[in-house]
Amino acid sequence: MEDYTVLVVDDDKEIRDVIGIYLKNEGIHVLKAKDGLEAIDQLHASTVHLILLDIMMPHLDGIQTTFRIREQKNIPIIMISAKSEDMDKILGLQVGADDYVTKPFNPLELIARVKSQLRRYVTLGRYEGKKRMINCHGLILEEEEKRVSVNGDPVRLTSTEYRIVALLMRYAGRVFSTHEIYERVWHEDGYNSENTVAVHIRKIREKIEFDPKNPRYLKVVWGIGYKIEK
User: Fold this and answer.
1) Which residues is 26 bridged to in the sheet?
2) Distance from C-alpha of 27 to C-alpha of 4, rounded to nearest angstrom
3) Which of 46, 40, 120 is nearest to 76 (CA)?
4) Which CATH class is domain 133-228?
5) How would you classify the pairing of strands 139-142 and 133-136?
6) Buried b or exposed e, range 62-72, using 16+ CB within 10 angstroms
């Protein structure tokens, strides 16, 4: 993974340095920032493929930083925080984070999550080795270009949102449970995943639907799961 660059953002220098050591041992180039303002400056100056982002920081916290980043970029963001409450996780996902790790964390697990997100990010759209365009009533997925549009208007999705849309569009008409979506997109056990998936579904609807409360594309099948209409 020597071609990848990860930006580590934390106000604790020791944590930045420890994470940096583990990443470098995997051949990953590391950039560091002590707060959100420095992180945004780094993103403007360098090519970054993934961000490890602490929530509680001075000047510009992780939530505000993620919100700003998502206005311009869809690179994977893994949030790191000492907080473990569900609402903190949900807030992070709502503003566009792809994953969430709670301190204290196992460095090897963190690196595994980083490598998994990097693999997904760089291979988005390469489905069965073929260039594909899927059109569901004006909702268009261009897999090789990693693009989604609605009636010709581009839609800016996070990498996780894209993977959910791609999954549902590839199997348009099929209903996926929240557990299935979580397991296929996050590649982890789907136990207790309903809130996480629901947050992403809501954000996707806000981006692709003219009226999110009366969705045309992304439908809920009550008691079963979600689907995108053929």
Assistant:
1) none
2) 8
3) 120
4) mainly alpha
5) antiparallel
6) bbebbebbbee
Tens of pLDDT, residue by residue over 76-129, are 999 998 766 667 777 778 888 888 888 888 999 999 999 988 887 776 533 334
214, 122 Cβ separation under 8 angstroms: no
User: Domain ranges in the chain?
Assistant: 5-123, 133-228
Q: How far apart are CA 163 and CA 175, in angstroms?
A: 16
Cβ count near 24 (within 10 Å): 12
Q: Please, what is the average pLDDT of the chain? A: 87
pLDDT surpasses 70 at 130? no
Residue 171 to residues 19, 96, 135, 145, 217, Cα–Cα distance (Å): 38, 24, 12, 19, 13
Q: What is the pLDDT of residues 12-27, one digit of tens each?
A: 999 999 999 999 999 9
Evaluate whether the domain defined by 5-123 bears CATH number 3.90.226.10: no
Please tell me which residue, 200 or 145, carries the higher pLDDT value: 200
Phi and psi at 46, nearest 5°, equal -140, 160
Report whether the peptide linkage leading into residue 104 is cis, meaning its omega lies within 30 degrees of zero: yes
Distances (CA, A) of 109 to 22, 99, 101, 102, 103: 11, 12, 9, 11, 12
Give pLDDT tens digits for 207-227: 999 999 999 999 999 989 999
